[in-house]
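Task: fold both queries, return C-alpha cells.
Query 1:
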Amino acid sequence: MRKYIYDTLDSELISELRRDGRATISHLAETLKVSRATIQNRLDRLISSGAIIGFTIRVHEALDQKTVKALMMIEISGHSTSQVIKKLRGIPELVRLHTTNGAWDLIAEINTPTLGEFDEVLRKVREIDGILNSETSLLLSSF
C-alpha cells in the first residue's frame, strides 16, 4: 500500500461506499457536501494507494442460501500478521478479515458456492507461511 495520509473525508467516503458500493459520484458528493471532482480525486487516490482493494456486492440472504459460509479462526506466528493478512486478502472467497483478541489472531469469513471449493480455500489458507493453527466452523443457520 502506498503512503497516503487519510483524513475524515476519506473515512466518510469509505463508509458511504460500504453502505452502497454502487453510489454515484454525484450522490457521494451531495451526501458528503463536496464537489464531484473532489470525490473522484479521493476515490482515485484511495484505489491507487491500496486503501480500496475492490468493490463487491452483498446478495439478499434468500438468494444466498446455497452458499457455503464459515468462520475461520487463525493463529499467526510471531510478527508476521501483516504478511499473512496481505496473502489472505488475495483469496477472494475470504469476504472479510477481522483482527481479534484472545487465543486467535484473525477471524476470516468464508463464502464459497460448493463444499469442494470450500475445501480448496481451507487448503490455500493453511499453506500460507506464518499461519500456525486454524479452526473453522460452518455457519448452518442465521437469525
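Query 1 returned. Query 2:
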Amino acid sequence: MKDHSRAVRRHHDARLKKKRQYYYSYRQGRLSPRQLGLVLHTPALCSCYMCGNPRKYFGERSVQEKRWMQTVEE
C-alpha cells in the first residue's frame, strides 16, 4: 500500500520544485512561485508534434516500445 500522507506529498512537491525551478527561465532568471506551481504539475510546455507522443501524430511506436520490441525479438 502506498503512503499518501501529506508530509510525503509536500516532500515530493519541494523536491520537484527545486529540480524544475530553472526549466523555462533561461532568459528570465528564476520562475515566480505561480509559474513554479504550474511547472510542478505540467512540466511539458506544449504537446506539439515535436514534443508529443509519436504514436498520436505519426502512428509510429515510441522509443520505449521500440526498445522493448528489440528485446522481445532477440
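Both queries returned. Flag for query 2: The mean pLDDT is 82.
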